Amino acid sequence: MRIISLLNKCSNLKSFVYSKDSIEEVKGAEAYVVDIRARKNGLAKCSICDQPMPVYDRQKVSRLFEFVPLWGIKVYFRYRMRRVSCSKCGVKIESIPWAEGKNHLTKPYQIFLAKWARRLSWKETSEAFQTSWENVYRSVKSVVEYGLAKRSLDGITAIGIDEWMYAKGHKYLTLVYQINDGMKRLLFIEDGRTKKALNNCFDQLDAEGRKGIQFVCTDMWKNYLDVIAERIPQALNILDRFHIVQALNKALDKVR
């Protein structure tokens, strides 16, 4: 099966066609290069408003976009970008479905790297797929930003609040999780374990979202307890058993 047939099966591009593939030298190594062209008579989309507009001109030099490697060989898409004459935004570069803005990594490759970065360290991921640490970082950042933009904060009725210690105990992060039955996920992260940090987390929920919280699980850190009492007073505060036992043991030690 040709590489173009594989791409049409796993990464079909609307309004564009994989025209030909070849093995060429790219950055000192052999790679699969797949040329892409726009379908005839197709309107390009403005990268600002995402509306179909007439083509203004085409760039003189083609751009390379890195795709998921095959059998350890790098794969690149090659395409000459068009500019559109947008009635709203003026002359702008077109929007393409396989990459965002000036990013030279394709969306499928970013998702691929981000998934592996959950299993391996970013350094190990970059070494395994012969790419840079920066490419792994940008891929993870892009996927996270996309997820945050698309996520829904509706229906949150139970949350957990915890602190995470790092830098050998000298620094903290405040973490807020959704712990509804069947929906457990990290919602917010803020620097420090101060009242401001937790308030910043609650600020990302609207008033209705905060009113919907019925249960909150946390430790006995006073900053957290004070903010919970102020921002979600209707919620039942379930204290962490570990910290309750720890506090009782400390009290017993003092009595002894």
UniProtKB/TrEMBL annotation:
InterPro entries: Transpos_ISL3, Transposase_DDE
Residue ranges of the TM segments: none
Occurrences of domain Transposase IS204/IS1001/IS1096/IS1165 DDE (ranges): 159-256
Protein name listed in UniProt: Mobile element protein
